[in-house]
User: What shape does this take?
Amino acid sequence: MKNIFTKNHIKITMEGNIAKLYITEYLERNLGEIIYLQFTKDKKIKEGITIVSVESVKMSYDILAPFDLEIIEINQDLVDDPGKLNHHHSFMTVRFETMPQAMSEKEYESYLRSE
Amino acid sequence: MEKIIIIGAGPGGYETAIRAAQLGFEVTIIEKDKLGGTCVNNGCIPTKTLFRIAELYDDIKLGSTMGIVSKSHLDTGMIQERKEYVMKRMIKGIQFTLGSYENITVVEGTASFINDREVVVEKDNQKETYTADHIIIATGSKSNIPPMDGVDLDKVLTSDDLLKLKEIPKSMTIIGTGVVAMEFASIYAKLGCKISVVGSELLKQLDEETSRRLKDYLVISEIKFNLGYRAKSISKDGDDLIVRATKDDQTKIFKSEYVLIATGRKANTESLSLENTTVEVEKGAIKVDDNSKTSVNNIYAIGDCVYKNIQLAHVAAHQGMYVVECIKSGHSDMNLKLIPSVVFTIPEVAMIGMTEQQCKKEKIAYKISKFLYVTNGKAVSEAKTDGFVKLIVDPITEQILGCHAIGQSADMFVHFALIAMDNKIKAEKLSDIIFAHPTLGEIFMDAVNLFGGKSVNSPFITNELRKI
Assistant: This one.
């Protein structure tokens, strides 16, 4: 399994052409307590389109598709208990065709420092 | 003095009468029932009275989290009295205002056309004929009852019946997912009635993100949604009613004490004898052009009785005022294109302009900002943290294309947006003015400020923007 990271703070764990999506610790920390999630109703999503609208006690935040993807499963536990997203729970399992381009953990950390 | 006859004294009719009188017309306004029409007697006003009662009842429960310890119960007789008091007070207000204009005559009775120029008014077997230079039809609408077995059963209600009901139903199945259905679902759920909603798409005119958010809030109020189901029949089962509904090849049975039919409204035109005129009618509703003129030169129609019109009281009133201004001077400066609408669910929902799905469908470029009540000091203080304000802005002109709000006093935000939209004020320009603190108004300010990265009530997160 390989972990990669996007500039929009998504951690992607890949196995073959299946990926589990998480938000990074940076986002978990900076969003504050998450109180509501609204998942897209679509199955096939283009890169950059909203896949989850997040509401926390501090802000509204859109999680965007990090690459073209097909949703296989939404983590329903998070619908009932959105706060779990603050605690390293994958929010979605997806299928992709083209290997996503993203950063290694080290590159992501230096990206955060540079911003 | 030119003469105008207005048929119907709902908000469309009576407000048009007053504006016409201000412009110097001799006005005759004819009403067969009560002044104020559906709005005052069976619609906006009584439902808002119940809305407030339901909201207050809910707030009293909330009081236990704020140090107010009290026991409360509902007195249905007093609820009816309160509703009657508000309605009578509103009707008195209309009577007083109409009566203050010497050039307005209010005629009681049922109006019907003799021909394109003459109207006969009948009351208690007395008939009188009226004629005028212009006639404006403002007869409104009534509940549409679908052809279905069981609609005549006892305890199967329209919204008019429900407003008169002297008890809170223990359980109610609501057929319909429009404004009337959702407002009553919200109100009666808060009053302790178990609600099941059967119908198609919830408030399909709303921005989709907003309607989904509303549904989630209503589910917390224990309203059960059965979307995609179509009611097929109603029958009796002992003291209860059974609604049978289907979705594809699935059938569901809904058992409840009462059933509310809220499947839209139809134009009130039956008593007008339009067949005596050359006014064109489609499915019982009156066809008009962009200036509310019918196929007959001197006859106009406004509001709910018009074919495919937006059925809102303020639309009717403004169409009527537009008509009389145009008759008087050939034009009107009124902007009838920007129409705010508010749905009094709990929490309430308000919108103006384009929805996100409309922008996508019409391939209109847009950008979005959304700010939450939960981050606003006044909302937190009042324990009214449900909701958001969402702005849709043109990325090139920077003007607001749409505003969608859900939460306490959501209507306020669409009116802020309305003023900006009508005056083509750039969203970013609204960042340069001061909003008072602590107010809910600051939620709008923060939504505007998000566009320029200026919100001081949001944490900093490096991010790329939502793509279109």
User: Anything to note?
Assistant: Chain A touches chain B through 26 residues (CB under 8 Å). Chain A is about 20% helix and 40% strand. The radius of gyration of chain A is 13 Å. The first strand of chain A starts at residue 2 and ends at 5.
